[in-house]
Design goal:
With 315 residues, the chain is an alpha/beta fold. The protein has a domain of 143 residues: Tubulin/FtsZ, GTPase domain (Rossmann fold, 3-Layer(aba) Sandwich). Helices cover 37% and strands 21% of the residues. It contains nine helices and twelve strands. Strands 4-3-2-5-6-7-9-12-10-11 form a ten-stranded mixed sheet, sandwiched between helices. The chain has a two-stranded antiparallel ribbon with strand order 1-8. The radius of gyration is 20 Å and the shape is globular.
Length: 315
Protein backbone atom coordinates (compact mmCIF):
# COMPACT_ATOMS: atom_id res chain seq x y z
CA UNK A 1 0.00 0.00 0.00
CA UNK A 2 1.39 3.39 -1.00
CA UNK A 3 1.08 6.76 0.72
CA UNK A 4 -1.07 9.29 -1.12
CA UNK A 5 -0.03 12.95 -0.88
CA UNK A 6 -3.10 15.17 -1.09
CA UNK A 7 -3.11 18.94 -1.46
CA UNK A 8 -3.01 21.34 0.28
CA UNK A 9 0.32 20.35 1.90
CA UNK A 10 1.94 21.85 5.01
CA UNK A 11 5.58 21.19 5.88
CA UNK A 12 6.38 21.43 9.60
CA UNK A 13 9.99 21.83 10.74
CA UNK A 14 10.91 21.16 14.37
CA UNK A 15 13.93 22.80 15.98
CA UNK A 16 16.99 24.10 14.17
CA UNK A 17 17.66 21.16 11.85
CA UNK A 18 13.99 20.57 11.11
CA UNK A 19 13.35 24.24 10.28
CA UNK A 20 16.21 24.27 7.75
CA UNK A 21 14.92 21.10 6.08
CA UNK A 22 11.37 22.44 6.02
CA UNK A 23 12.34 25.76 4.40
CA UNK A 24 14.27 23.91 1.68
CA UNK A 25 11.46 21.39 1.14
CA UNK A 26 8.97 24.26 0.85
CA UNK A 27 10.77 25.51 -2.25
CA UNK A 28 10.73 22.04 -3.84
CA UNK A 29 7.04 21.36 -3.28
CA UNK A 30 5.81 24.96 -3.49
CA UNK A 31 3.86 24.43 -0.30
CA UNK A 32 3.36 26.25 2.99
CA UNK A 33 5.78 25.91 5.90
CA UNK A 34 5.46 26.09 9.69
CA UNK A 35 8.37 26.14 12.19
CA UNK A 36 7.88 24.96 15.79
CA UNK A 37 10.75 25.36 18.24
CA UNK A 38 11.64 26.35 21.79
CA UNK A 39 14.58 28.39 20.43
CA UNK A 40 13.68 31.94 19.47
CA UNK A 41 16.41 31.96 16.79
CA UNK A 42 14.51 29.28 14.81
CA UNK A 43 11.25 31.25 14.88
CA UNK A 44 12.28 34.12 12.61
CA UNK A 45 9.53 33.67 10.00
CA UNK A 46 5.93 34.79 10.37
CA UNK A 47 4.68 31.20 10.17
CA UNK A 48 6.22 29.89 13.39
CA UNK A 49 5.16 28.81 16.86
CA UNK A 50 7.46 29.43 19.80
CA UNK A 51 7.35 26.85 22.59
CA UNK A 52 8.13 28.80 25.75
CA UNK A 53 9.89 27.15 28.69
CA UNK A 54 9.70 30.39 30.67
CA UNK A 55 12.86 31.12 32.66
CA UNK A 56 14.51 27.69 32.21
CA UNK A 57 17.71 28.21 30.21
CA UNK A 58 18.59 24.57 29.53
CA UNK A 59 15.23 22.75 29.46
CA UNK A 60 14.95 18.97 29.39
CA UNK A 61 13.19 17.04 26.62
CA UNK A 62 10.30 16.38 29.00
CA UNK A 63 9.92 20.08 29.89
CA UNK A 64 9.91 21.15 26.22
CA UNK A 65 7.30 18.47 25.49
CA UNK A 66 5.10 19.60 28.38
CA UNK A 67 5.37 23.19 27.18
CA UNK A 68 4.41 22.11 23.65
CA UNK A 69 1.07 20.82 24.94
CA UNK A 70 0.33 24.38 26.09
CA UNK A 71 0.34 25.54 22.44
CA UNK A 72 -1.43 22.43 21.08
CA UNK A 73 -4.56 24.43 20.21
CA UNK A 74 -2.48 26.84 18.14
CA UNK A 75 -0.82 23.91 16.32
CA UNK A 76 -4.22 22.30 15.69
CA UNK A 77 -5.52 25.58 14.26
CA UNK A 78 -2.51 25.93 11.92
CA UNK A 79 -2.86 22.43 10.44
CA UNK A 80 -6.67 22.53 10.13
CA UNK A 81 -6.62 23.90 6.57
CA UNK A 82 -4.35 21.16 5.18
CA UNK A 83 -4.87 17.57 4.00
CA UNK A 84 -1.26 16.34 4.16
CA UNK A 85 1.36 17.21 6.78
CA UNK A 86 5.08 16.58 6.17
CA UNK A 87 6.97 16.55 9.48
CA UNK A 88 10.73 17.23 9.51
CA UNK A 89 12.62 16.48 12.73
CA UNK A 90 16.07 15.62 13.99
CA UNK A 91 15.36 13.22 16.87
CA UNK A 92 18.95 13.62 18.06
CA UNK A 93 18.12 17.16 19.13
CA UNK A 94 16.09 18.14 22.17
CA UNK A 95 13.49 20.10 20.22
CA UNK A 96 12.95 17.35 17.65
CA UNK A 97 12.61 14.46 20.09
CA UNK A 98 10.45 16.53 22.46
CA UNK A 99 8.01 18.11 20.01
CA UNK A 100 7.68 15.41 17.31
CA UNK A 101 5.42 13.02 19.31
CA UNK A 102 3.11 15.91 20.28
CA UNK A 103 2.72 17.16 16.70
CA UNK A 104 2.22 13.64 15.30
CA UNK A 105 -0.42 12.97 17.97
CA UNK A 106 -2.28 16.17 17.03
CA UNK A 107 -2.14 15.23 13.32
CA UNK A 108 -3.57 11.80 14.04
CA UNK A 109 -6.37 13.20 16.19
CA UNK A 110 -7.16 15.72 13.44
CA UNK A 111 -7.27 12.92 10.83
CA UNK A 112 -4.49 14.39 8.69
CA UNK A 113 -2.31 12.41 6.31
CA UNK A 114 1.12 12.47 7.99
CA UNK A 115 4.48 11.63 6.45
CA UNK A 116 7.35 11.96 8.95
CA UNK A 117 11.07 12.37 8.23
CA UNK A 118 13.23 11.50 11.26
CA UNK A 119 17.02 11.71 11.63
CA UNK A 120 18.51 9.45 14.31
CA UNK A 121 21.60 10.23 16.46
CA UNK A 122 25.17 9.00 16.29
CA UNK A 123 26.11 6.12 18.58
CA UNK A 124 28.43 8.32 20.65
CA UNK A 125 25.50 10.61 21.52
CA UNK A 126 24.54 8.23 24.30
CA UNK A 127 22.42 10.73 26.22
CA UNK A 128 20.18 11.21 23.16
CA UNK A 129 19.61 7.61 22.07
CA UNK A 130 16.85 6.74 24.57
CA UNK A 131 14.77 9.87 23.91
CA UNK A 132 15.15 9.46 20.14
CA UNK A 133 14.00 5.82 20.37
CA UNK A 134 10.79 6.49 22.28
CA UNK A 135 10.01 9.54 20.12
CA UNK A 136 10.44 7.54 16.93
CA UNK A 137 8.17 4.79 18.26
CA UNK A 138 5.36 7.25 18.88
CA UNK A 139 5.86 9.09 15.59
CA UNK A 140 5.70 5.77 13.70
CA UNK A 141 2.42 4.90 15.42
CA UNK A 142 0.85 8.23 14.42
CA UNK A 143 2.19 8.47 10.84
CA UNK A 144 0.89 6.90 7.65
CA UNK A 145 4.47 6.89 6.37
CA UNK A 146 7.76 7.30 8.25
CA UNK A 147 11.17 7.86 6.64
CA UNK A 148 14.15 7.27 8.93
CA UNK A 149 17.75 8.23 8.23
CA UNK A 150 20.36 7.00 10.71
CA UNK A 151 23.41 9.23 11.09
CA UNK A 152 25.24 6.47 12.94
CA UNK A 153 25.04 3.91 10.12
CA UNK A 154 26.16 6.58 7.65
CA UNK A 155 29.22 7.21 9.81
CA UNK A 156 29.85 3.45 10.21
CA UNK A 157 30.01 3.09 6.43
CA UNK A 158 32.21 6.18 6.09
CA UNK A 159 34.32 6.60 9.27
CA UNK A 160 36.40 9.33 7.65
CA UNK A 161 33.42 11.71 7.49
CA UNK A 162 32.99 14.56 9.94
CA UNK A 163 29.66 15.03 11.71
CA UNK A 164 29.04 18.15 9.60
CA UNK A 165 29.57 16.17 6.39
CA UNK A 166 27.14 13.49 7.64
CA UNK A 167 24.49 16.16 8.26
CA UNK A 168 24.96 17.55 4.74
CA UNK A 169 24.70 14.10 3.14
CA UNK A 170 21.62 13.25 5.22
CA UNK A 171 19.87 16.52 4.33
CA UNK A 172 20.66 16.03 0.65
CA UNK A 173 19.23 12.49 0.68
CA UNK A 174 16.02 13.68 2.37
CA UNK A 175 15.59 16.43 -0.23
CA UNK A 176 15.84 13.90 -3.08
CA UNK A 177 12.93 11.97 -1.56
CA UNK A 178 10.90 15.13 -0.92
CA UNK A 179 11.34 16.27 -4.53
CA UNK A 180 10.05 12.90 -5.76
CA UNK A 181 6.82 12.98 -3.72
CA UNK A 182 4.88 14.44 -6.64
CA UNK A 183 6.03 11.81 -9.13
CA UNK A 184 6.75 8.53 -7.28
CA UNK A 185 5.00 6.29 -4.76
CA UNK A 186 6.11 5.65 -1.19
CA UNK A 187 5.19 2.70 0.98
CA UNK A 188 2.73 3.55 3.75
CA UNK A 189 4.91 2.09 6.50
CA UNK A 190 8.40 2.51 7.97
CA UNK A 191 11.03 3.32 5.35
CA UNK A 192 14.81 3.37 5.83
CA UNK A 193 16.69 6.00 3.85
CA UNK A 194 20.27 5.12 2.95
CA UNK A 195 22.88 6.76 0.76
CA UNK A 196 26.63 7.27 0.38
CA UNK A 197 29.17 10.08 0.37
CA UNK A 198 29.92 12.04 -2.78
CA UNK A 199 32.86 11.53 -5.16
CA UNK A 200 32.19 7.81 -5.69
CA UNK A 201 31.34 5.80 -8.77
CA UNK A 202 27.78 4.56 -8.96
CA UNK A 203 28.58 0.92 -8.06
CA UNK A 204 30.46 1.95 -4.90
CA UNK A 205 27.63 4.29 -3.99
CA UNK A 206 25.13 1.42 -4.26
CA UNK A 207 27.36 -0.80 -2.13
CA UNK A 208 27.62 1.81 0.63
CA UNK A 209 23.88 2.44 0.50
CA UNK A 210 23.18 -1.28 0.95
CA UNK A 211 25.71 -1.50 3.80
CA UNK A 212 24.02 1.44 5.53
CA UNK A 213 20.62 -0.20 5.04
CA UNK A 214 21.68 -3.55 6.51
CA UNK A 215 23.09 -1.86 9.61
CA UNK A 216 19.55 -0.65 10.35
CA UNK A 217 17.49 -3.75 9.54
CA UNK A 218 18.04 -7.45 8.68
CA UNK A 219 17.82 -8.37 4.97
CA UNK A 220 14.67 -10.48 5.38
CA UNK A 221 12.74 -7.47 6.72
CA UNK A 222 13.16 -5.46 3.51
CA UNK A 223 10.00 -5.73 1.43
CA UNK A 224 10.49 -3.10 -1.23
CA UNK A 225 13.20 -0.71 -2.32
CA UNK A 226 13.03 2.49 -4.33
CA UNK A 227 16.25 3.49 -6.05
CA UNK A 228 16.98 7.14 -6.77
CA UNK A 229 19.95 7.66 -9.09
CA UNK A 230 21.31 11.18 -8.82
CA UNK A 231 22.93 12.58 -11.95
CA UNK A 232 21.37 9.84 -14.05
CA UNK A 233 21.79 11.80 -17.28
CA UNK A 234 25.57 11.40 -16.99
CA UNK A 235 25.58 7.66 -16.29
CA UNK A 236 25.79 5.04 -19.08
CA UNK A 237 22.53 3.16 -19.60
CA UNK A 238 24.33 -0.17 -19.22
CA UNK A 239 25.52 0.80 -15.73
CA UNK A 240 22.01 1.90 -14.75
CA UNK A 241 20.64 -1.42 -15.96
CA UNK A 242 23.23 -3.42 -14.03
CA UNK A 243 22.64 -1.68 -10.68
CA UNK A 244 18.86 -2.03 -11.13
CA UNK A 245 19.24 -5.76 -11.77
CA UNK A 246 21.58 -6.09 -8.79
CA UNK A 247 19.09 -4.37 -6.48
CA UNK A 248 16.25 -6.55 -7.81
CA UNK A 249 18.22 -9.64 -6.83
CA UNK A 250 18.70 -8.41 -3.26
CA UNK A 251 15.16 -7.36 -2.31
CA UNK A 252 11.85 -8.95 -3.21
CA UNK A 253 10.69 -6.08 -5.36
CA UNK A 254 12.61 -3.12 -6.72
CA UNK A 255 11.68 0.00 -8.60
CA UNK A 256 14.21 2.45 -9.94
CA UNK A 257 13.91 6.17 -10.48
CA UNK A 258 16.54 7.98 -12.48
CA UNK A 259 16.97 11.72 -11.97
CA UNK A 260 17.50 12.62 -15.62
CA UNK A 261 17.12 16.35 -14.94
CA UNK A 262 20.06 16.57 -12.57
CA UNK A 263 22.74 19.00 -13.73
CA UNK A 264 25.27 17.69 -11.23
CA UNK A 265 28.48 16.22 -12.57
CA UNK A 266 28.53 13.88 -9.58
CA UNK A 267 26.46 10.72 -9.36
CA UNK A 268 25.32 8.60 -6.44
CA UNK A 269 22.52 6.36 -5.22
CA UNK A 270 19.84 7.15 -2.66
CA UNK A 271 17.78 4.14 -1.52
CA UNK A 272 14.39 4.19 0.18
CA UNK A 273 13.52 0.74 1.54
CA UNK A 274 10.26 -0.24 3.24
CA UNK A 275 10.72 -2.37 6.36
CA UNK A 276 8.39 -4.84 8.04
CA UNK A 277 9.46 -6.05 11.45
CA UNK A 278 12.12 -4.97 13.91
CA UNK A 279 14.83 -2.40 13.27
CA UNK A 280 17.83 -1.46 15.37
CA UNK A 281 15.93 1.58 16.65
CA UNK A 282 13.54 -0.67 18.59
CA UNK A 283 16.42 -1.48 20.96
CA UNK A 284 16.97 2.21 21.79
CA UNK A 285 14.11 1.95 24.31
CA UNK A 286 14.85 -0.94 26.73
CA UNK A 287 11.09 -1.27 27.44
CA UNK A 288 10.17 -1.14 23.77
CA UNK A 289 9.62 -4.89 23.58
CA UNK A 290 6.61 -4.64 25.91
CA UNK A 291 3.38 -4.80 23.84
CA UNK A 292 1.43 -1.55 23.71
CA UNK A 293 -1.68 -3.17 25.18
CA UNK A 294 0.35 -4.07 28.29
CA UNK A 295 1.69 -0.55 28.76
CA UNK A 296 -0.15 1.69 31.22
CA UNK A 297 1.28 5.08 30.24
CA UNK A 298 1.30 4.85 26.44
CA UNK A 299 -1.43 7.41 25.73
CA UNK A 300 0.56 10.49 26.78
CA UNK A 301 4.34 10.87 26.21
CA UNK A 302 6.53 11.56 29.23
CA UNK A 303 6.55 15.28 29.93
CA UNK A 304 7.18 17.74 32.74
CA UNK A 305 4.46 20.15 33.80
CA UNK A 306 4.33 22.78 36.52
CA UNK A 307 1.46 21.74 38.80
CA UNK A 308 1.87 24.82 41.05
CA UNK A 309 1.75 22.64 44.16
CA UNK A 310 2.85 24.28 47.39
CA UNK A 311 4.80 21.38 48.86
CA UNK A 312 7.33 21.80 51.65
CA UNK A 313 10.42 19.76 52.34
CA UNK A 314 9.87 17.37 55.25
CA UNK A 315 12.89 16.77 57.45
Amino acid sequence: MSFQVKEPVLIIGLGGAGSKLASEAKKSLNSDCLVISNDEKDCTSEESIRVSTDSVVNPSVQLIRGSTYKVSDEIKSKISEYSTIILMSNLAGKAGSAIAPVVSEICKESDKGLISFAIMPFKYEKDRIFNSGISLKRVREDSQCTVVLDNDSLLESNPDLSSKACYEIANSAIMHVVKSLETSEMSAETNILSTSKDDQNIEDSLRDSLKMLYENAPPNSIKRSMLYVVGGANIPVGVLNSITNLTSGIVNESRSQVDMESTSNESKVVMLSSIQGMTKFDSYDPLGSIPQENTLDWETPDCSIDCKLDLYQLE
